[in-house]
Design brief:
Elements (H helix, E strand, L loop, with lengths): L17 H8 L5 E4 L19 H10 L4 E5 H4 L1 E6 L1 H13 L9 E3 L5 E6 L21 E4 L4 E3 L4 E2 L2 E2 L18 H7 L41 H19 L6 H17 L5 H14 L2 H5 L1 H17 L6 H16 L3 E3 L5 E3 L5 E2 L21 H11 L6 H15 L4 E2 L9 E5 L7 H13 L14 H10 L2 E6 L2 H9 L5 H14 L5 E3 L10 E3 L2 E8 L1 H7 L2 H5 L6 E5 L18 H11 L5 H5 L9 E2 L5 H15 L12 H16 L8 H25 L4 H15 L3 E3 H7 L6 H13 L3 E6 L9 E6 L2
Parallel strand pairs: 13-20, 14-18, 14-19, 15-18
Antiparallel strand pairs: 1-2, 2-7, 3-5, 3-6, 4-5, 8-9, 10-11, 11-12, 16-17, 21-23, 22-23
């Protein structure tokens, strides 16, 4: 890979756009699209990027022509010192001066005034993003981008400037020099090795003493004080497990186990949780216990420990998620003791220290789906367009959700995705009250009846779990349109719900994931359970955001109920007018297409009414191995970052594939396959939905009335641009909150530093100062 060049030779004068740059680099560098914040675009499996993926790069930039190319450094064996601004450049030059000056290497000046220094990784080594023994970032604002990291490519352009590579040819970074010894030593946290003539090991204490001072290299990982009781117990358990594994290891794998255990133990040392001498002594003692010192010699054991130490110290053990949350809570408690003030120029600062507090950027309360995701080719897009054109108050986002759910249902019990996944969708179509949400449901019903597949119509609400089971037994393939989903979930998810009502949420979770398997109904005293092959139970539900999220409790997030739903909200409230198509009847060509999918004399009875499906299922394949690899990269990337089954992203990969499968079928009903464009669209839509669900839960969910009112006030201030006076706030709330309750809520928000208060002069006529409320987070 190193040293390869483009043919014809690279000519920077011909590069005018990020899209052209990405294509010019693609044959020699692993590039992928990034947004203006330097983050990989939603749904982009950037860690699977490799050089030579020309077709993939063309598809990415065809969809996102302005995206900046990022370089997956691990895939091309590069490591970059990322100096932040003039201070970072000066800090790097100071360090380099002690070792003969800044080495000759490719340097790229960033739009923010920083600089990227490119080096080549050493053969057989892949240093990550650890800062090693660099000074603290407050003194030395330098980051390291290595294996597992990325940077924006030379000559990439964004609104505030260019990643300027003065030498002209961005591909020269492939000829970067090898990481110099002095910098390699810093990044690996190297110290002088101890003389390998240590006296016989001394007993190791039963408990692990923490290092008297943090041993971890500043900036390498988040650390907590070992006085934290649960963290200490966790560290002791992890330490003891590694030492025990080595002590009990049999002949044949002892040296490998020593390397593995030493690497893991020195990760704990690097994080500042274990003293280095204790770690070293425990490892030597364990090597003696298993007979390795006797058989291989002490010097060999010390060499293995020394080698593993370098790797472990370069990758400090990360703080477990539960302790990170404890740390954030503790930090929030400190924050509550601060007093915020607003200067005359509107700047929010700490009244005691003068520290400037950046207020939260004003954003829409209800996120809007990116417009390019609404452009769905094929039958799905045609049905969505028809729904929009026949509506007095068009809602394109909700129409697309209806079309996807309709086609997915008609495919049910016959067509399955590449991983044997079904096309079941649970869609939450949210819009303001009175915006015309019901039109989507009526349009789907007209389409189903016109195509003579009435069996597809399921219930509009359910009173109990047995009611759902009864419908699935009678109609194992249905589309269930639920209006006012907030009221429905409030009844079903309430703590006061009956046992039968409570069963509804459980059944909804079960039915989403059956795919082509067998589902068995509940066995009761009066009847035995019934096996149903591949039941298909789709939901299209409309509602108002406030009602939906106020019905959801924290338990419904942790049990995974909500991450099975595709969230499609819109804030649009189009004034009613004359529809583009006055005749609400579906056009004949769409009816024929829908009927062809849903009505097949050979399998009609089996698909729509029989619990046992005799029809041979048909699986829609990936269009290529590259598309399949992209899906599994995406799935693994999500799985590696989950916080639990209730994580909003836990089912994003499965959701993405279902969406991609439906879109692919809409393009070709005869021999469909999931192409790269289908998958990229599905991944981006599913990722956006998960992010929107998380944000709206934070903005709307409340466990009690106090929290509910606080959320409402915060949302209202955000709607008013992030700052407003009391009068504007009361007007926007439409006098729905009593003055005393509003005052108490604002005091609560100020105490939690969600809101800051500013007193401003009333104006040239004088009078009392006006109070302005500013949203800070």
């Amino acid at each position: 890979m190193m040293g390869c060049v483009l043919h014809p030779p690279f000519d920077p004068a011909t590069i005018q756009t990020n899209a052209k740059l990405a294509l010019a680099l693609a044959s020699s560098l692993a590039v992928f699209p990034c947004d203006d914040t330097k983050q990989p675009l939603h749904g982009t499996p950037w860690k699977s990027a490799r050089s030579g993926q020309i077709d993939r790069v063309q598809r990415w930039w065809a969809a996102h022509p302005d995206a900046m190319p990022g370089i997956h450094l691990g895939a091309v064996g590069l490591i970059v010192m990322d100096a932040d601004g003039a201070e970072g450049i000066a800090a790097f030059e100071r360090i380099a001066e002690q070792h003969g000056g800044v080495p000759e290497c490719p340097m790229v000046d960033t739009p923010s005034g920083g600089r990227h220094y490119y080096f080549r990784q050493r053969s057989g080594e892949a240093l990550g993003n650890s800062r090693g023994s660099l000074p603290p970032k407050s003194e030395c604002p330098i980051d390291v981008r290595g294996d597992g990291g990325y940077v924006i490519a030379p000559d990439a352009t964004r609104d505030d400037g260019v990643y300027l590579f003065p030498d002209g040819d961005p591909l020269d970074i492939l000829h970067a020099p090898e990481l110099p010894d002095w910098l390699h030593d810093i990044l690996t946290g190297k110290r002088e090795e101890e003389e390998p003539s240590r006296p016989p090991s001394t007993p190791v204490p039963a408990t692990v003493p923490a290092a008297s001072a943090p041993v971890c290299r500043p900036g390498a990982a988040r650390t907590l004080d070992m006085g934290h009781p649960r963290l200490r117990a966790w560290v002791e358990s992890a330490f003891d497990a590694e030492i025990k594994a080595l002590e009990q290891c049999g002949t044949g794998g002892r040296n490998n186990q020593l390397n593995t255990s030493a690497f893991a133990v020195f990760q704990l040392v690097a994080a500042g949780w274990v003293a280095e001498d204790v770690a070293h002594g425990a490892l030597v003692q364990a090597a003696e216990a298993c007979g390795l010192v006797k058989d291989d010699g002490r010097r060999s054991v010390l060499r293995t420990i020394s080698s593993a130490r370098k790797g472990g110290m370069a990758q400090p053990r990360q703080v477990p998620e539960e302790f990170q949350r404890d740390e954030e809570i503790a930090a929030a408690a400190v924050e509550l003791n601060r007093e915020l003030a607003v200067s005359s120029d509107g700047t929010i600062h700490d009244a005691a220290t003068g520290e400037v507090i950046e207020p939260e950027e004003a954003t829409a309360v209800i996120p809007e789906l990116p417009r390019h995701l609404l452009r769905v080719p094929g039958l799905v897009g045609e049905i969505a367009d028809w729904i929009v054109d026949t509506s007095p108050s068009p809602l394109p986002v909700l129409a697309m959700g209806a079309a996807l759910t309709l086609i997915g249902t008609l495919m049910g019990r016959k067509w399955f995705g590449p991983t044997r996944s079904s096309t079941v969708l649970y869609v939450l179509a949210l819009a303001p009250s009175g915006s015309g949400k019901e039109h989507q449901i009526q349009a789907m019903r007209r389409m189903i009846r016109g195509a003579a597949v009435n069996n597809a119509l399921g219930g509009r609400s359910f009173t109990s779990g047995p009611a759902i089971e009864g419908q699935v037994k009678r109609q194992p393939l249905t589309l269930n349109c639920i209006d006012e989903i907030g009221a429905f979930l409030k009844r079903v998810l309430s703590a006061r719900a009956s046992t039968y009502e409570g069963d509804i949420a459980r059944l909804i979770r079960e039915l989403w994931g059956i795919n082509d398997g067998v589902w068995t109904t509940t066995t009761r005293a009066s009847e035995a359970g019934v096996d149903i092959t591949a039941p298909h139970f789709s939901i299209y539900a409309t509602g108002v955001p406030e009602e939906l999220f106020e019905a959801i409790g924290s338990g419904d997030l942790s049990n995974g109920t909500m991450n099975r739903f595709l969230l499609l909200p819109t804030a649009e409230a189009v004034a009613a007018g004359k529809p583009a198509l006055e005749d609400p009847a579906p056009p004949l060509d769409l009816l024929n297409a829908v009927a062809a999918i849903g009505f097949d004399e050979a399998d009609f009875q089996s698909r729509w009414t029989a619990t046992f499906m005799a029809v041979e299922p048909r699986f829609i394949p990936f269009a290529s191995g590259e598309v399949e690899a992209a899906f599994y990269d995406f799935k693994n990337e999500i799985a590696g970052n989950l916080k639990g089954a209730g994580d909003f992203r836990a089912r994003t990969a499965e959701m993405a594939l279902r969406l991609a499968t439906i879109r692919a079928f809409g393009l070709d009903q005869r021999s469909p396959s999931v192409a790269a464009d289908d998958l990229a669209w599905g991944m981006e839509l599913a990722s956006w939905s998960a992010s929107a669900m998380e944000r709206m839960c934070m903005d709307f969910m409340a466990e009690n009335e106090t929290q509910k009112l606080a959320n409402k006030v915060k949302r209202t201030i955000r709607e008013l641009g992030g700052r407003c006076d009391r009068t504007a706030l009361i007007r926007r709330l439409k006098n729905t909150v009593r003055a005393r309750d509003l005052t108490e809520t604002l005091d609560l928000l100020k105490a939690g530093h969600f809101v800051a208060e500013q007193k401003v002069d009333a104006g040239p006529k004088g009078g009392r100062k006006q109070t302005i409320y500013v949203l800070t987070r």
